[in-house]
Design brief:
two-stranded antiparallel sheet; TATA-Binding Protein; five-stranded antiparallel β-sheet; globular
Length: 314
């Protein structure tokens, strides 16, 4: 394979943010597991992603270098038909509009996390449908199984990513391709009929979903939840990747238990989690992102786990 530095990109942008940006953690919120065919971290530390813009498929490489006196210099290189569109929105994708200036950590647990991760930002991924499909695939199943299904679907039905990727990468299918995917293809990927029907129904409304992108977050959530099979958890998973600082994935199998363990020393339910997070209302999602980054939301896994089920065998 061609060296990642050998092929000239179709578009390039250098961005000097006002403060530090942790590229790997910020873009990592968009990845789906360590073997995501659309998301890779190269040995040199650069983050590579494959996506589908309105203007076409794109692969982009994001790298950061410290510059004096500027706090950081971030370089975005892009290949493919969607390259110009991608570099134009790159600062938003990297959390350039994510303002933490009025965030009050309130307690030492959160203050320590903030001090340790000053470059953490919430990305603003403007392609809502592209974010929605993997969230649907993650409904009601362990993450490891959802990530495996995502890999199978992209490698089988996605488009090879343009450019000199460090490993073979794949662009997620278009809404038209998701709509045309036969039931057996979902089955082979390990996605049960309920989730595949939800994804196909969402693909049929992809244009309407995308029109929500600049609406207030409450309207985006309401629009998503009006779709069949989309509930509070799925909407919150999407909103957190649209940059919503208050998104909380109520209904998650582990989140409430992990938050309870971090704050109370014992697992909590959703009601208790929301009670704990209430002092940060409006920025509850920031607290969750910070504590995940700091490793504070990792309780001992001694109890029963979500049952794994291979839907390809059913």
């Amino acid at each position: 394979m061609t060296s990642p530095r050998a092929a000239r990109p179709d578009a390039t942008r250098t961005w000097h943010p006002a403060g530090p940006v942790d590229v790997r953690r910020t873009l990592g919120a968009l990845g789906k597991g360590p073997y995501d065919p659309a998301h890779q971290v190269a040995p040199d530390g650069a983050t590579w992603r494959a996506s589908r813009m309105a203007t076409g498929a794109v692969t982009y490489r994001v790298s950061a270098a410290r510059v004096t006196p500027a706090p950081r210099e971030i370089t975005v290189e892009a290949w493919g038909d969607g390259a110009e569109e991608l570099v134009a929105e790159a600062p938003f994708l990297l959390g350039g509009a994510d303002d933490w200036s009025d965030f009050d950590p309130r307690i030492p647990l959160v203050a320590r996390a903030l001090a340790r991760h000053p470059g953490l930002r919430l990305p603003r991924q403007r392609r809502i449908f592209e974010t929605l499909v993997p969230a649907i695939i993650e409904q009601r199943v362990p993450g490891v199984d959802a990530y495996a299904s995502w890999r199978r679907l992209l490698r089988t039905h996605g488009e090879p990513a343009p450019g000199p990727t460090p490993v073979p990468m794949w662009v997620p299918p278009s809404a038209e391709d998701w709509r045309a995917l036969p039931s057996w293809a979902w089955h082979r990927a390990g996605v049960d009929p309920a989730r595949s029907r939800t994804a196909v129904a969402a693909a049929q409304r992809a244009a309407a979903i995308q029109r929500l992108v600049d609406r207030p977050y409450a309207e985006v959530a309401a629009g998503l939840r009006s779709l069949p099979g989309i509930g509070e958890w799925t909407a919150a998973e999407v909103l957190s990747r649209l940059g919503d600082p208050d998104a909380v994935s109520v209904g998650d199998y582990n989140l409430a238990k992990d938050v309870g363990w971090a704050f109370d020393g014992e697992p909590a339910d959703d009601a208790r989690m929301l009670e704990i997070l209430e002092p940060w209302r409006g920025q509850r999602g920031r607290v969750i992102h910070l504590l995940y980054a700091d490793g504070a939301l990792r309780r001992p896994r001694r109890g029963p786990r979500l049952t794994r089920m291979d839907h390809r065998r059913r």
